Amino acid sequence: MSNLDNLLASREMVLVAGSGGVGKTTIAAAMGIAAAQRQRGKILVLTVDPARRLAAALGLEEVGNTPVRIMPAVFKQAGLKVRGQLWVAMLDTKAGWDELIRCHAPNKQVRDAVLANPLYQNITSRFVHSHDYLAMEQLHDLHATGEFDLVIVDTPPSRNALSILDAPGRMVDFFGSRLLRWLTVPYRSRLFTVASKPFYQVADRVLGSRFLQDIAEFFILFQAMESGFVKRARSVEALLADARTAFVVVTTLETAPAHEARFLAQELLKRNMTLGAIVANRVLPNELAGAAAAGSAEALRSRSGRELAEALAAQLDEAPVAVIDTVLSQLAERFDDVALVAALETERREELASLSPLMLDVPWLSGEIHDIAGLGGLVDRLRVDSTEI
Amino acid sequence: MTALLDLRMLWVTGKGGVGKTSIAAALAKVAALSGRRTLVCEMDAKGALANALGEDDLGFEPTEVSPNLFAMTMSTEDALREYLRLFVKIPLIGRISPLAKTFDFVADAAPGVKEILGIGKLCFEVRERHYDLVVIDAEASGHVVSQIGAPRVIADLVQVGLVRDQTQWMLDILDDPTQTGVAVVTTPEELPVTESAELVQRLTSETGAHVSAVIANRVLPMLFDRREQAIAEQIGSTLPTLTAAIGAGAPMVLEAARLTDARRRTGAEHLRWLQSELHRDAQHADLPIVTVPELFCRAPGGRVVSLIADGLAEELDIGLA
Q1: Which of A23, A67, B146, B211 is most buried, with most CB under 10 Å away?
Q2: How far apart are CA A218 and CA A224, in angstroms?
């Protein structure tokens, strides 16, 4: 078994994290296929906002919060053998919020009042990192049902990758905050609370007391759901730190994503959470940064005369020597650009590899993956363990 | 349509990681070099703008980083402080720090409050004509709609109070296409172009702001013309000769060109898709897509921004002093 298979076999949850646009969704889908190939049982890939063609490839167009199975015939058609069942679900964050309210509201009155509140939509759509929290909640629910043997979560893209880890804690903080208490004490007694007086004066003049009242009403409703929210946020937090949960950090080796991946890996270690692997996606071939390639490019650049172009012309159906010569010059010029990028990427890769027990490289592929067979090819790449190379 | 740099307020946004800050800094640089007194402001205070301009640090108080070019980072707390000093005249300056912290929390939960303080500050600079152009390194595509749309949200939700009274003059500036525009930055990749197309639609339907341009960043140049391309495609067949002449690295030299060209083609397809997607809507039929070439550099910073600025000046046809 490859290291990837070991990782997937030993966990109940794998969270795929990283900055936006690095290919998290694709990697998560490939890992789902890898698991289904080697394990019996039910595997779920929970994905958010998949790239349009990938969604079609996975038959995700009409999938909502409810898991849907990718049928064996689909794999067979793509030439892949699977032993387990692969299920996929897409995370719909707006529906998710409504569900949360339905789930946590102590009674029908509170539920309907919250859903009908004019501020509700505005606040839920803007709530700090609520998407991250929702992903974690769904994961918790699915895990709690015990229906799936392995759940792989493609986490929402977040600028600060840590927000997924902090989301449950922030939810707890929010319900415990002085602000919420202050906003939800009766209006009259609020006026006499010395500590809040300057704030009240300013807030009242700047925002208008009517608006504050609207907000307060909303939060009073929301507070009725506190115990449900806090209890759940705590168990989501515990689940993230559980030994059966592992994180896979996906990144490209470009400056910004690599920087974020390093930061995320370090924070995971600091928090005693399990970093299962770092996947470096769209990696340029190593040899591009090597001495042999650089030597050849230099030889090409410093060639004198058109001797080489003439020699090649004989093999190229007597193509014009001048054009061949231009092509050769361009090849030498362009090589430096690509080699510089490759050298930078090698440095960043080394740095990341030192942080993770497992480093997986996916080479840069021309064109994007847009079917199951393509994902199968990606799985093969992921099974090549690069740590030992 | 008002030319990009003839606007009074230019919002620069796009998916995270596409080089939004570098483009905002470069646009501001071009504006300043063409003789416009320019302010560039980073809205999310992560320090990328300072780096892009080659400065150690930027604060709420604008710094003149080069002739005509002023730079600042937004701070809700400082904006609130200035706002209270200018408009509310509440003598609370000494005690405002913990206050602003609490305020920050309300602002997180209450729609539009935090945004309007920042936007208010920038609209104020425009209204008072302190600068010819204010360039805003805005929030990424996920949040920019609620950022630019904040004054409207406030106007709808808040019935009374000072903030409510202040929204109208801001909307007059923000909704005026001769004064305010949005530049959406993208890269020629699948996710960024998809997000950009959605963003342009959302900005138009959910805010009064006018999208003035799409800027495609990191576009790879064409390596070969048609005749050269034909030869480049066959040159692999001469590998033994080539290897004999330039050494064992020859296959990698060819591979580098092949990779670059494959990436360029994929990128060009994505940009074509974006263009057709945008042009389907009559409103955006003449929306220009401005391209900025990929600059192969070690790290983003002052030098890269200068190079981008040169490229943009040429694309936008602006003579630099």
Answers
A1: A23
A2: 10
Place of tokens 């800050």: B21
Residue B275 to residues A42, A279, B141, Cα–Cα distance (Å): 42, 33, 18
Q: How many CB atoms lie within 10 A of CB B73?
A: 24
Q: Which of B108, B191, B194 sits opposite A128 (nearest CB)?
A: B108
Structure tokens at A237: 């937090």
CA distance A384 to B6: 55
- What is the pLDDT, as a whole number, of residue A128? 43
**C-alpha span between A157 and A51 (Å, rounded):** 13
Query: What CATH number is given for A3-168+232-285+356-388 in this structure?
Result: 3.40.50.300
Distance from CA of A145 to the nearest CA of B (A): 32
- Closest approach of A305 to chain B, Cα-based (Å): 13
Most confident of the following: A13-22, A151-160, A185-194, B38-47 = B38-47
Pick from B110, B160, B296: which is nearest to A210 by CB? B160
Q: Which of residues 223-252 of A touch B (CB under 8 A)?
A: none
Give the gap in angstroms from C-alpha B56 to the nearest C-alpha of chain A: 19
What pLDDT score was predicted for residue A227? 76
Per-residue tokens: B214: 């799409």
Instruction: Tell me if B19 sits within 8 A of B185, measured CB to CB.
Output: yes
> Is residue B159 helix, strand or coil?
coil
Model confidence over B205-237: pLDDT tens digits?
988 899 999 999 999 888 888 999 999 999 999
Q: Which residue of B has its CA nearest to A311?
A: B241
Chain A touched by B86 (CB under 8 Å): no
* Structure confidence at residue A389 as a pLDDT band (50, 70, 90): very low
So what's the pLDDT on residue A388? Answer: 46
Chain-chain contact of A296 with B246 (C-beta, under 8 angstroms): yes
Q: What is the ipTM of this complex?
A: 0.72
Tokens describing residue A195: 């500590």
Number of helices and strands in chain A (H, E)? 19, 8
The chain B residue lying nearest A312, using CA atoms, is B238
Domains of chain B: 4-221+275-315 (3.40.50.300)
* A255 contacts on B by Cβ (under 8 Å): 299-300
Q: Where are the domains of chain A?
A: 3-168+232-285+356-388, 287-345
- Closest-CA distance, A1 to chain B, in angstroms, reads 32
Q: Give the list of residues 6+ apart from residue B151 with CB closer than 8 angstroms, or none.
A: B112, B116, B119, B167, B170, B171, B174
pLDDT at A60 over 90: no
Q: CB-based contact (8 Å) between B285 and chain A?
A: no
Give residue B159's pLDDT. Answer: 65
Question: Buried b vs exposed e over A362-378: b needs ≥16 C-beta within 10 Å?
Answer: beeeeebbbbbebbbeb
